[in-house]
Amino acid sequence: MRRALAPIFALTLLAARTAGAQAAPLDTGMNALAHDVALRWYGQGVEAERAGHTLQAEGLYLRAVEIDPGLLGAQLGYARTLAGRNHRDEAVQMLLRVPARALADDGAVVAWARALLTLGAAEEAFAALRGRPESVEVTQTLVDEASRDGRFVEALAAARRLEGLLAARDEDTRRARIYVRALARLAGDADAVRAPHTPTAFRRLLAEER
Question: What does pTM read for this prediction?
Answer without folding.
Answer: 0.75
